Amino acid sequence: MKNKRTSQIVFAAGVIGTLLVSASSMTWANGPAEIKPLALHTIMQDLSMNMQAVTDGISREDWPLVAKIAPRIADHPQPPLAEKMRILSFIGSDAGKFKDYDEKNHQAGQELKRAAMRQDGPAVIAAFATLQNGCLTCHQSFRKSFQEHFYGQR
Question: What pTM value is reported for the model?
Answer without folding.
Answer: 0.75
